[in-house]
Amino acid sequence: MSPFDLPERHVLWLEDAPDAPCDPLPDAVDLAIIGGGLAGLSMALHLQAMGVETVVLERAVPAWGASGRNAGHLLAGTSEYYSRAVAVMGRDEARAVWAFTVANQRDFTSFLLGLPQETGFTRSGYLACATTQEERRELEESVALLTEDGFPSEYWSADTLVKRTGRSPFLGARYSPDDGLVHPARTVWALCQAYRSGGGRVRSHCAVKGATNGPLGWTLELEDKGGARAIKASMVVQCTNAWTFELLPRFTDLILPVRGQMVATDRIHKVIPMAMAANFGYEYWRQAPTGEVVLGGWRWSQKEMEIGALSEELNPEIHQGLAAFLRSSFPKLQGVPLRCAWTGTMGFSRDSLPWVGEVPGMQGYFVAAGFTGHGFGLAWRSTACLAEEIVHGRLHGDLAPFRPRRAS
Ligand SMILES: Cc1cc2nc3c(=O)[nH]c(=O)nc-3n(C[C@H](O)[C@H](O)[C@H](O)COP(=O)(O)OP(=O)(O)OC[C@H]3O[C@@H](n4cnc5c(N)ncnc54)[C@H](O)[C@@H]3O)c2cc1C
Questions:
Q1: CA separation, residue 352 to residues 151, 215, 265, 375 (Å)
Q2: Ligand 1 center to residue 112 CA distance, Å?
Q3: Per-residue pLDDT tens over the stretch 291-336
Q4: Does the beta carbon of 373 sit less than 6 angstroms from any atom of ligand 1?
Q5: What domains can you pick out in the chain, each with its CATH number?
């Protein structure tokens, strides 16, 4: 088989999925969480720690969405290079958002390290590599700005890259020592297990079809594997990322579904030392703990087709681009067979910031979504701050840039 032929479609990370949790549903609950991905289960754990009775309603199974299909880069920062974030948001807001992601990384990794389950977390470091001189200049400028703002970051020239990583086609890079890697699906399953072992309920194969508000709170219409039914909840948090628009049509133009595609090689000895990306983050790769090299990206070549795409179909042209990139950038991978490929759909926010807070005009109905390809960098702390808002009944200052109110 040529590397340009499509390999089998399945998700490497989901190969050893546990049985889907299907806990009994109550008729009423204090707070219902829609979506059993990274955001929904993080939300559930924070609220559980604060004594709120919750249930997680998941249309498929935990980690079925983007959370179980990604590269597992656990990074500080957002989807834009810092120099661009500063130009778009201004220095103060860019610094505040970056600091938020640093705090997210600190809190999330310390939580993961305290779990009994293996999540594959390693503080590997991260390299954002330049493929053009323009990108190299932006990375160098970003390192200068980050350093001034007190965030650890180094600029590596092309020579330094070769010395530290072996043969490299890149023109320079930003190195971030505190960034790391997780096994994405195992991380979500570990959150799920931690929540359930504390008494939390997760209902798989339970789709929320609609929400109506009455004097006693919210009624959610469910399509459950046991048939159609309803659940009452005083409050609701919707954590459905790419699918936010389905229950909240007002988000149709604010959070766009954008499909990403990944490919994994067969297992080989260690060739990729850390989390890596190039071309303004459009291409990203790492090596799995079991040895497969995992690469994603190339959607820029098919932009119109990948925006709004929610199906799991592989795009053969994207696959060809990824296969060519693998062969040209990593000579050590010549001849290594490709094991599988898959897609996942992200929720891309128009301003690259997530949407976290109460939905205007919908008292007691909250959203945490639009993580724009950086859920591991944002979701844990976003949901922690939202849990504080809900329990204490006052706005959390750290969520100011992420408020749904900014749409109006
Ligand atoms: C190819 C790819 C690579 C990525 N790489 C990285 C990376 O390296 N680092 C990083 O930080 N981020 C990465 N991301 C982004 C990251 O995966 C997401 O930001 C994160 O997983 C979002 O988590 P979530 O819980 O909000 O959404 P999801 O994981 O998508 O979860 C949403 C859940 O809601 C459920 N749902 C939807 N509608 C309903 C309904 N009506 N009723 C009940 N349930 C419903 C879905 O079934 C799904 O399980 C990548 C994403 C992709 C696709």
A1: 20, 36, 31, 12
A2: 19
A3: 999 999 998 887 677 788 888 999 999 999 999 999 888 888 888 9
A4: yes
A5: 18-69+186-253+351-407 (3.50.50.60)
